[in-house]
Predict the 3D structure of the following.
Amino acid sequence: MSRPSTLAAWLAYLETLHPKSIALGLDRVRAVQTRMDSTLHCPVITVTGTNGKGSTCAMLESILASAGYRVGLYTSPHLLRYNERVRIAGREATDDELIAALNAVEDARIGALGASGSDVPIALTYFEFGTLAALWLFARAGLDALVLEVGLGGRLDAVNLVDPDVAVVTSVDFDHMDYLGATREDIGREKAGIFRAARPVVCADPQPTGTMVRHAEALGARLYLIGRDYGYVPEGVQWQYWGPGGKRFGLPFPALRGEYQLANAATVLATLDLMRKSLPVAAGSIRDGLLTVDLAGRFQVLPGRPTIVLDVAHNPHAARALAGALGTMGYHPETYAVVGILADKDIAGIVGAVRSRIDRWFVATLPGPRGAAAATLAARLERAGIAPVSVRAFDDVAAALRAAQGEASEADRIVVFGSFLTVAAALAAVRSGLTPAQRHG
């Protein structure tokens, strides 16, 4: 069978290799990895958490790059291009680089078939195949540091093939309960799976689960907790950090909006404190990295009027943070929400967390078998006590965004949230000119 020749064809092929989109476990992916030359030769930071992973990873990359280090970054999911998931020295991996890496994974997968004597190749999920490809590229990139974002959970996630020098937990809250468990203790246990014996763990959750604390103790891993071992103090337009490496004063707020980003930034500085022997970072690099960090879809405010805010908030914890950030913005007479949510998410919890900030709702159907229909979202909003006259349903996000902009005045704001898919569709619509978002920019 001939192999795909384009990245798009490869990605379509990956979707056919496993009957499930998510299949946690390391045995299959490790069996393929053992046949690949993907040994890493640099310090590694692995980041897990219910929310805040992407922001934390972006700040780590930005500060380390500002310090002159050659940094690799692996994140998921992507918004517009798969290439966003694999960054090397500040740039996205090219199609050709990714195709070469995917071919290397397929070679190993076929080799594993012959070695096992099985008639059926090892089935890898889309994420597992992509993770192995990313690690193969990173092993050849001459990196000084590598930042890995866990896809789901931690213990059984493909990223956990790699032993981190420092493990980071940004938050523990309710999401993906079908895979991670129904309680915070269960979820914390899964996230603690990235801890390693005698290596430090940085935890930004103010209420760490007992399962995490006990697992760290059993491994002899020193657990650094926000509020106890490190923290931050807002000081007007600046902030102060304190942690394992001492105090830092007069720090600029991160370029990522939202005061909740200070907890993420402090967690980043605590992590870098713990790596200062192998990756020393000067104060100027910290300032530059905080000021220049960029991450699409995390309380991202687009230029132009009406104001458009993009946020990938897709669970109640993230929606609460979004609501708080909206409350700190300047005055807007009306707030219009463009919302698309996956059917397996806590729709009621998401809506309840942010409803006090929203005046009008423009709900959209998301594509794919997991996407909730607009009619379903409208019914959930009505069930939550939101007046039907305040809700309109649309076949897709672009149509909902067009309608919201058609009704909003220049002084109003539109907030797009509910899923990575929702924000991606809105970004694509703006960039392709399907909406008039930039007409006043």
Q: What stands out?
A: The chain has two domains: 7-292, 300-428.
